[in-house]
Amino acid sequence: MAIRSPWWGLTALCLPMLIVSMDVSVLFFAVPYIAADLEPSAAQQLWIFDIYGFVLAGLLLTMGSVADRIGHRRLLMLGAAGFGAASVVAAFATSAEMLIGARALLAVAGATLMPSTLAMIRHLFDDEDARRKAIATWNAVLAGGVAVGPIISGFLLEHFWWGSVFLINVPVMVVLLLVAPVLLPGHTAVPGRRVDVLSAVLALGAILPVIDGIKSLAADGWSVAAVLTIAVGGVIGSVFVWRQRRLADPLVDLILLGERRFATSVSVNLMCMFAMLGNSILMTQYLQSVLGYSPLRAALWSLAPTVVVGAVAPLAAVAANRAGRPAVIVAGLLVGAAGFVVLASSTGIHTLLPVLVGATLLAAGIVAATSMIADYVVGVAPADRAGATSGLLETTSELGGALGIAVLGSIVNVVFRTNLTDAGFDGEQPRTLTGALAAAHHLPADRAGTAIDAARVAFVDGLTAAAWAGAAALVLTAALAVWGLRDRPQKRTDSVDDGVAPATHH
User: Which of 23, 67, 396, 495, by CA, is between 20 and 30 Å from 31?
Assistant: First the structure.
């Protein structure tokens, strides 16, 4: 018999989320060690990084629906077992191909864990206030895992071989397998529901090209090939939507997406991840390449905003009880915009405190907003579709993060190339700050210092432009939230939760 305290169940659900989010960033320090041991080609090295995010994003929708079909606890435990096994394979990989395959398997398992955990919160907490606090905690753990990953990775690599960054997953998953049957309910399956295989293939075929194209734009700038890749994903996505409209039991419930407040919430979530991940990548570059910090030191400073975030998430839940969920979402977006303004107006080539203040405001505001969005989306979804709805929310997070990296990164690169003039470099001007720093090492000592300073100034100029763009994007998103999340004028009925969607489907 399960222990009835839902908070112990939440503790169990936070374990896999911490590990899954850590795996996004845990390889940051391990790359040189992996490269020396496995000798991957340049293309293989990129795939070691990218395959995890690609497969994860492509399978979230499908795995959310599978969780509704077979039961969220069952899929969670299967995913935990798979994640642990894939971690062992990755740790002892003897070739680049083997490591890429293991990372793909980790992503498949991760895609089962993310929507399952969020959906389980829907079943664990009947009380709206308690569920709001639970989701805020879950969201804080998710954000914290990305920040903690590089630090844990750096510590392990100082004492063990590179495979240890994967083996850290195993004991956590073993603990989850032991406690899940005791702490989590097992009666959440909808056996009569089928998972449309063609829809799953179409979802994967739509999301992967879009993510790939966006990453190409971020890395190499605008190109016809990248745009065409995104277009192919868009066409397949249109076919996916067409099919969902004609299925009696669709993979994605378009009835929910057709409702103003739900659609607005999903859109706001996408823009929140746009801002958060786009800025995180830029801050990493700033700390390492502009301030010259070591990867571990940069990771430790990056952790500072996370401490504040851990306190903000529960406070957001309390504020929502008094002011309402839409007010907290709008306020969070505006605080995030203020963080971008601080970054835009105060960042220089020798500043740290303003950068930390700006990053903290941004992280705190975004986590407050996303916590409320997750609570809202999960709360209004029919219980028998909690997994599929959670998968949809996580998919928008992945897409938003990729867009943020591409758009904000592109702004930085364009401004960098425009402003890096007469810097003293020989031949063609470097296209990125990393390239500029590498090229400076080949210059005479009397020119190298000047060239490096010029490159750093040009990067900060680009960072400033990207921060102003991020601030504008969040202000516009806040305006969208004010319009899209407003209450309906008519009275609510028993069949409608918060004015959104009927509790039954088909």
Answer: 396
Give the Cα separation of 169 and 242 in Å (integer): 40
**Sign of the dihedral through C-alpha 154, 405, 343, 481:** negative
Cα(97)–Cα(109) distance, integer angstroms = 19
Range of the domain at 222: 196-250
For 99-158, the pLDDT digits (tens) are 999 999 998 898 888 788 877 887 787 777 777 778 877 877 777 777 777 777 777 877
Burial of residue 248 (CB within 10 Å: 0-12, 13-18, 19+) is: exposed
> Do residues 325 and 136 lie in contact, with contact meaning Cβ atoms separated by under 8 Å?
no
* 216, 225 Cβ separation under 8 angstroms: yes
Q: The whole model's pTM is what?
A: 0.78
Give the distance from CA 427 to its chain's centroid.
Answer: 39
Q: Residue 384 has what DSSP assignment? A: G
Contact (Cβ atoms closer than 8 angstroms) between residue 325 and residue 371: no
d(C-alpha 244, C-alpha 257), whole Å: 12
- Are 439 and 425 contacting, i.e. CB atoms less than 8 angstroms apart? yes
Same-domain status, 166 and 305: no
Separation CA 364–CA 53 (nearest Å): 24
Last residue of one domain, picked from the residues 250, 267, 289: 250
In this structure, are residues 321 and 129 in contact, taking their beta carbons and an 8 Å threshold? Answer: yes
CA-based nearest residue to 145, from 114, 191, 174: 114
What CATH number did the domain enclosing 143 receive? Answer: 1.20.1250.20
178 lies in the same domain as 35: yes
Q: How far is the C-alpha of 224 from the C-alpha of 184, rounded, in Å?
A: 49
278 shares a domain with 235: no
**CA neighbor of 168 nearest in space, from 244, 83, 226:** 83
φ, ψ dihedrals at 194, nearest 5°: -105, 155
- Tokens standing for 30? 């391990």
3-state secondary structure at position 497? strand
CA distance 291 to 432: 16
Three-state SS across 151-194?
A: HHHHHHHHHCCCCHHHHCHHHHHHHHHHHHHHHCCCCCCCCCCC
Q: Let me know whether 126 and 223 are in one domain.
A: no
Q: How far apart are CA 156 and CA 226, in angstroms?
A: 37
The tens digit of pLDDT for each residue in 88-111 reads 999 999 998 999 999 999 988 988
Q: Give the dihedral sign, CA 469/435/300/406.
A: positive
CB 67 within 8 A of CB 394: no
Confidence of residue 3 (pLDDT cuts 50, 70, 90): very low
- Residues near 480 by beta carbon (within 8 Å), at least 6 away in sequence: 264, 267, 268
